[in-house]
């Protein structure tokens, strides 16, 4: 309870309440203040409930709060009688009722605010069946239900968008980036169009490119469909294999099994289930009910002190001692005729315990098997989600091993082929190296011959000249083609510029006239704007003055209204008191004794007389007790002395007996020595 109040106070001191409570001030709130506080919290969840409870009747306040708590799905604890007590406590402002409600509301304010908002649109209006017979009313009701469903869908989409983390700023940035990219793409398309227009048959080429793109997209979609169908076929084949394996196993089981074995298995299962239902589960339920009963009883009792614990421990020790005494008496009075029954009872108890242990082991094994089956299903689903297959059966595993062996032999053969190719590659590499050395030797011989003839570097120069001439011829062809294209493009551009100038000449003339008109209108607009600003400033000052005046009048009106309500409440209370006084006076003055007995004065007079008589009796009893106090104390002192005297005699008697026993033992020891 203290943690609950601490949580409520902390939440009320935060935004948006800011009540500045502590535990003492919160606990000292009056019922009316608690109801107002509950109304404020409900008003924070649903703004329609932010009202002053002094302006409405208590029945209306309770009804309003109960309706909203029902919409918010608050479940008061207890049975039906507790529900009636809950309603009564809510009307009277009981702390035991309002504190749990505040704790529940403040724990989940955001969730309840959303629920109250949705209830405003999703709480269905109940239309009587006789009204739905009208076609117009039925159509409106149908439209109402459709709009409600549409609102549900829109709210779900809104919540999903909020959860997805997309903000309006990010969306705007994405839109602006997309628009910029769109402009860039449009400009690029325009440039490409202008470049393509110079090519012959460009329309036909564009049409062919469009058809090629469509065919490529169609090819991609067909490839994707093919891949999906392949995966579906693969999964279907796997399911078919598993079904065939299961069918074989079931056929094998049916072929091997006999009706007697099946009946025996079914009888074992039935016996086990009947044992669970008839013996084990009822016994466990009874023990659980007993423990729950004791726990509820323990919870219902008040907190125990150290003295209570000490008393309980002493009581337990006494009961244990009594049990031990009873067991000893039973052992002493044990009859041999009951030995056989006790032996049978022990054997029966041992067998029942073994039966319970085996039943628990079987139940644990079944639970473990079910958990392992669930884990296998989860692993299969995970493997299926990762693109793998499910767990293999025994036959599938054998097939997999045979395939693996065949692949292993194929791998060895391929590895041998790779080794042969690697050896051949080494030979070819060595051959290439020898040929390169021969080429270098031949080049050196050629250079030596050229030096002897006086034409050193002739062969290298000849190769370079041939290569340069070939490159030059290619460049000349490209330059000639480029110059022709450039000259044609310049001619086209000059023609296009001339056409544009001719078409833009009348537009430029109109633009000059429009610019002049624009300047005149801009000047006129500036003048009108200055006039508007001056008029708006004057109206704004008047408006602010009127707002201040209205605000003052509203505050004065609210103060007067509050005073009126306070005076009205005081008037009602005084009227009630006056009415009670009139009824009291009427009953007191009435000649009928029955009416006079109902008067408050008569009732209090009777109570005073009863209390005076009770006081007289108590005083007489006190006098008797005082008179007999001295003799009673003397008698008690005499009994205490007598008790001490008897205790002393008992101790002396015990000592005398001990001394006599010791003397007898010594005498017997002396006699034994004399005999020896």
Automatic annotation (TrEMBL):
Top-level division of the source organism's lineage: Eukaryota
Report any one BP term from Gene Ontology.
cilium assembly
Q: Where does the protein end up?
A: Cytoplasm, Cytoskeleton, Cilium basal body
Please report a single Pfam family linked to this protein.
IFT81_CH
The alphabetical list of record keywords is:
Acetylation, Cell projection, Cilium, Cilium biogenesis/degradation, Coiled coil, Cytoplasm, Cytoskeleton, Differentiation, Phosphoprotein, Spermatogenesis
Q: Does the keyword Transmembrane helix apply?
A: no
Q: Which residues form the IFT81 calponin homology domain?
A: 3-126
- Region of interest (Disordered), residue spans: 366-390
Gene3D superfamilies, from UniProt?
Intraflagellar transport protein 81, N-terminal domain (1.10.418.70)
Coiled coil segments of this chain:
137-253, 483-591
Please tell me whether the keyword Glycoprotein is annotated for this protein.
Answer: no
- Listed Basic and acidic residues bias regions: 366-377
Q: Which GO terms describe its cellular component?
A: ciliary basal body; intraciliary transport particle B
* GO MF terms, alphabetically ordered: tubulin binding
Q: What is its main location?
A: cytoplasm
Family classification:
Belongs to the IFT81 family.
Query: What is the recorded function of this protein according to its Swiss-Prot or TrEMBL entry?
Result: Component of the intraflagellar transport (IFT) complex B: together with IFT74, forms a tubulin-binding module that specifically mediates transport of tubulin within the cilium. Binds tubulin via its CH (calponin-homology)-like region. Required for ciliogenesis. Required for proper regulation of SHH signaling. Plays an important role during spermatogenesis by modulating the assembly and elongation of the sperm flagella.
Q: Report what the protein is called.
A: Intraflagellar transport protein 81 homolog
Organism annotation = Pheucticus melanocephalus (Black-headed grosbeak)
């Amino acid at each position: 309870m203290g943690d609950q109040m601490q949580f409520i106070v902390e939440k009320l001191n935060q935004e948006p309440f800011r009540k500045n409570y502590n535990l003492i001030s919160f606990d000292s709130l009056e019922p009316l203040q608690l109801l107002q506080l509950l109304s404020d919290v409900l008003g924070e969840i649903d703004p329609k409930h932010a009202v002053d409870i002094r302006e409405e009747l208590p029945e209306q306040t309770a009804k309003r709060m109960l309706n909203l708590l029902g919409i918010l799905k608050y479940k008061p604890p207890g049975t039906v009688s507790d529900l009636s007590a809950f309603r009564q406590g809510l009307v009277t402002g009981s702390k035991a009722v309002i504190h749990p409600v505040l704790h529940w509301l403040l724990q989940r304010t955001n969730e309840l605010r959303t629920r109250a908002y949705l209830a405003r649109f999703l709480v269905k209006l109940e239309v009587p069946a006789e009204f739905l017979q009208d076609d117009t009313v039925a159509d409106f009701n149908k439209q109402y239900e459709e709009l409600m469903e549409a609102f549900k869908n829109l709210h779900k989409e809104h919540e999903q968008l909020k959860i997805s983390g997309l903000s309006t700023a990010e969306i705007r940035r994405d839109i602006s980036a997309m628009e910029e990219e769109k402009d860039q793409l449009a400009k690029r398309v325009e440039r490409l169009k202008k470049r393509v227009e110079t090519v012959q048959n460009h329309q036909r080429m564009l049409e062919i490119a469009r058809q090629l793109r469509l065919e490529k997209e169609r090819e991609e979609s067909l490839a994707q469909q093919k891949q999906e169908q392949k995966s579906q076929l693969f999964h279907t084949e796997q399911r078919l294999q598993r079904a065939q394996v299961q069918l074989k196993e079931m056929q094998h089981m049916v072929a091997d099994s006999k009706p007697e074995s099946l009946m025996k298995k079914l009888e074992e299962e039935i016996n086990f289930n009947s044992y669970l239902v008839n013996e084990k589960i009822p016994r466990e339920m009874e023990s659980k009910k007993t423990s729950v009963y004791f726990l509820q009883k323990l919870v219902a009792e008040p907190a125990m002190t150290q003295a209570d614990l000490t008393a309980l421990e002493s009581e337990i020790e006494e009961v244990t001692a009594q049990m031990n005494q009873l067991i000893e008496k039973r052992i002493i009075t044990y009859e041999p005729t009951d030995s056989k029954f006790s032996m049978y009872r022990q054997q029966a108890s041992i067998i029942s315990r073994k039966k319970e242990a085996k039943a628990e082991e079987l139940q644990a094994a079944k639970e473990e098997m079910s958990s392992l089956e669930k884990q296998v299903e989860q692993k299969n689903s995970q493997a299926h989600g990762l693109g793998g297959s499910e767990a293999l059966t025994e036959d599938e595993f054998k097939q997999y091993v045979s395939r693996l062996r065949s692949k292993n032999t194929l791998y060895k053969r391929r590895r041998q082929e790779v080794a042969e190719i690697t050896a051949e590659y080494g030979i070819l590499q060595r051959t290439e190296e020898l040929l390169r050395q021969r080429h270098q030797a031949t080049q050196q011989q050629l250079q030596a011959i050229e030096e002897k003839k006086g034409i050193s570097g002739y062969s290298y120069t000849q190769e370079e000249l041939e290569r340069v001439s070939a490159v030059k011829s290619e460049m000349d062809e490209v330059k000639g083609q480029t110059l022709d294209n450039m000259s044609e493009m310049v001619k086209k551009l000059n023609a296009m510029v001339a056409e544009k100038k001719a078409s833009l000449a009348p537009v430029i003339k109109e633009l000059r006239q429009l610019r002049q008109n624009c300047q005149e209108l801009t000047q006129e607009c500036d003048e009108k704007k200055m006039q508007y600003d001056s008029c708006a400033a004057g109206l704004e000052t008047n408006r602010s003055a009127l707002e201040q005046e209205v605000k003052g009048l509203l505050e004065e009106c609210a103060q007067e209204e509050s005073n009126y309500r306070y005076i009205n409440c005081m008037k009602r209370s005084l009227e009630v008191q006056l009415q009670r006084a009139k009824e009291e006076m009427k009953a007191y003055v009435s000649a009928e004794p029955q009416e006079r007995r109902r008067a408050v004065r008569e009732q209090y007079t009777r109570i005073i007389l009863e209390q005076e008589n009770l006081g007289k009796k108590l005083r007489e009893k006190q006098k008797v007790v005082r008179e007999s106090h001295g003799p009673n104390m003397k008698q008690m002192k005499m009994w205490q002395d007598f008790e001490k005297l008897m205790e002393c005699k008992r101790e002396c008697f015990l000592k005398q007996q001990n001394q006599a026993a010791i003397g007898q033992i010594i005498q017997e020891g002396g006699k034994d020595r004399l005999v020896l």
